[in-house]
Amino acid sequence: MAIKEGSLEAPDRQPLDWKNPEFYDKDSLYSELERVFDICHGCRRCVSLCDSFPTLFDLVDESETFEVDGVDKDDYMNVVDQCYLCDLCAETKCPYLPPHEWALDFPHLMLRAKAYKHQQKDTKWRDRLITSTDPIFDTLSLPGIAQVANAAAASPTLRKLADKVGIHPDAPIPTFHSKTLSRRVADEIGSQLPANPGKRTTGKVAIYITCYGDHNEPQVVEDMISVFNHNGIPVKVLKDAKCCGMPKLELGDLKKVEKLKDANLPMFLAAIEAGYDIIAPIPSCVLMYKQELPLMFPDDDKVATVRSAFFDPFEYLMFRHKDGLVQTDFKQSLGKVAYHVACHQRVQNFGMKTRDFLNLIPDTEVTAIERCSGHDGTYAVKSETYEKAKKIARPVVNRVKQAEPDTFGSDCPMAGRLIADGLDENNPANAEHPLSMVRRAYGV
């Protein structure tokens, strides 16, 4: 039978067989790395996405054979280390995913290699620390400590000392708030509002505020609550949930991901049982429950239940708009908006709902930028990858400059911060989250 050169069919990503002992077998892993690298070498469509592919292709081009068989297998992990699991190659570029017979899934293979490295205890202390978001963020947000942490982040001298443990001195670092979102708002807001169901929505939402939304971007969550209340949607705030697990997924610590999932599911299921849909302000956290965890636990009915009730905020609002349940009483325009489409939102494959909603605002012109910002959760703060992240972000920064916007931002606050840093390193502008833009347009 002839082999198809590529596929025009929709990607059908297969479950991650991470509990199979062969998943961690070195010979099996390296054999698959060689097979996939050889296919990628012959294709090269993904060269502009991240540094994994240029790293691979440089290894091939500098080898004696100019083929993958000439690459030292000890260098394979150099490719793995540059992957931050944005999933763009699989979801937007690769013609060889299942159902194609070559069954290539580059992000899942990189995840397998990261899990192998983690099992072999081949991970840096720094990486284990900065991916432990719950204890670290809780500590850094304590009254008194938050002020010290923020002052340290602004000190060139202390930042140079941090470089010695692997945090780049120029990397934009998030601000920590002693008055976290959990301490700012009640458990339920707008509970007096009657839930008005739509075709796909129950009309009331439980917000998974996430560690980032709680400690670093509480204002964004407050803006989201205001926008949803303005649209007649009562809100419940899930204050005791744990990290979504994405940082540990990127580290390859899959058992910790499972523990975090087990800690969060009872809270999510109770909210769903009470008639709530679930939303989260950070695309990566939404992706974990809509795609990553279902692929890790394909036979878990509880994971499937949560997946079916989990929404991106603007995906939810556009479902409501389609049902005629969204207010369009905007008080002011946003003018020209440069909007960066976050990678972990793009790969959810529901379209550019944020852009569509912003376009509802009169006299607002939106330039959507579909290119990776290069931030990832930790990639842009590490000493060894900060400059690479800035390079990846450069096309996005240039597009923002060309748009000459009145405001710019991304659904991913971390991406917005890196873009702002690239616009003017000496005097960074402030990125604005689209939810904050909408609240401003509503005048609430």
As for the number of domains, it is 4
The proportion of strand residues reads: 5-15%
Helix/strand class: alpha/beta
What is the average per-residue confidence, as pLDDT, rounded to a whole number? 91
Give the overall shape, derived from the CA principal axes: globular
How helical, in percent, are the residues?
40-55%
The run of helices and strands is HHHHHHHHHHEEHHEHHEHHEHEHHEHEHH
Strands, total number: 8
Biggest sheet descriptor: 5 strands, mixed
- Give the strand line-up of the largest sheet: 1-3-2-4-5
Radius of gyration: 22 Å
Low-confidence region ranges: none
Query: End-to-end distance, in Å?
Result: 63 Å
Task: Give the helices and strands, then pairings.
Layout: H1 26-43, H2 52-61, H3 76-81, H4 88-93, H5 106-119, H6 125-130, H7 133-140, H8 145-153, H9 156-163, H10 181-184, E1 188-189, E2 205-208, H11 210-215, H12 218-230, E3 235-238, H13 246-251, H14 254-273, E4 277-279, H15 283-296, H16 301-309, E5 310-311, H17 313-322, E6 335-340, H18 343-346, H19 353-358, E7 364-369, H20 386-403, E8 407-410, H21 413-423, H22 434-442
Parallel strand pairs: 2-3, 2-4, 4-5, 6-7, 6-8
Antiparallel strand pairs: 1-3
What would your notes on this structure say?
The protein has 444 residues and is of the alpha/beta class. It has four domains: 21-119, no CATH class; 125-163, no CATH class; 181-319; 328-442, 3-Layer(aba) Sandwich (Rossmann fold), CATH 3.40.50. The chain has helices at 26-43, 52-61, 76-81, 88-93, 106-119, 125-130, 133-140, 145-153, 156-163, 181-184, 210-215, 218-230, 246-251, 254-273, 283-296, 301-309, 313-322, 343-346, 353-358, 386-403, 413-423, 434-442; strands spanning 188-189, 205-208, 235-238, 277-279, 310-311, 335-340, 364-369, 407-410. It is globular and about 70 Å long.
